[in-house]
# Entry
Amino acid sequence: MKLKGLNIVRSPAGKHYVYIRGTPIAILRGFQGDREALLRRLREPDVLTAYNANRKRNLARVYAGGTLGSLVAWFRTDCPRYDKLSDATRSDYEKTFDWLEAKGVFDCPLDLIITPELYDLRDRCAKEKWGRFADKMISALSSMFTQAVKRKKMACNPCFGMDKIHKADPNANREWFAHEWMFVRENAPTEVLIPCMIARYAGLAGQTIVGLNEEQILDHPLTGKAIQYTRRKNNKATLLPVLPELQAFLAERKMRSAEGRIAIRDDGSPWPSEKEMQTRVSHWLRDRERDGKIGTGTTLHGLRVSYAAWWKRNGASDDEVARLIGDKSLRMGTHYTRHVEDEVSIRRAFERAGQAQATTSRSPTNPNGLLPVPDELT
# Structure
């Protein structure tokens, strides 16, 4: 059976703690081992007994019509939008729905859900969980309410216009430094290195990487090979010539899963979900960060930024960068490479200063040919 509604926490010491989501109840504490060992442990009778005895959520419960619980049930089973969500987004939505159900909010009639009440709920959630989780809860509700309004299940979306409680780090998913990438390239285990190489040299997002199949690698007259894919996020079809570094890497590693998946685990099996692949990569990177081998902020998505930045430095326009990373919006090309534009602007300033200094006469009072400092700054 698949255990649902669990929150798995890994301590800095490498020990795992498994809780019933939305509660402080632990069914396993201090387990030490890799993920496969943890999954085997969760299948053992004593853990299953604790899981079944303590789990709060009643999967069979049917909520009355016109309540939030009934709308969530409709969203999960009958709304086409739900099926189009990425695995990671669906997992985030389910975690927030579990919290809402555990707090008894599913019994609330829809006509009582108004914006001020949602702000109170969000603030309560932020105190009990954390700010980003609370924002994800509002995002999940807003996505569901939007679909409900379209089908006349609600008059309006009360989440519309709500601000966020969590302020995102503008430097999150930063471009990697050269020495960080070199270390990972030379030391990462194969199951970590494969998605990293695809992100760095093809700019693919995690949800595309996890499903990438060898049938999508085609011959191409420009570079020899190309990847043909359609992003689930925006349904944009892309034929992307493959850079030589990735071609050589894939040629060296011919092992594929039985389904032809390229991103595989060390045992040769495909990743069951994008989230599991992302988690494995993230855990390995954070361990290396604690070892002092790489800096903070290295992520798989950051390698996608590194790919975009490489193209920008080699003359690609923002629109071209957006196409290269499988996006439709020029704005995304600008977003991914805004730090490169800063570098270019700073370089221009230095070059202008250098040219001005070269034309400034040298004298005993100005032996280095520096520009004079304005009186108001002296």
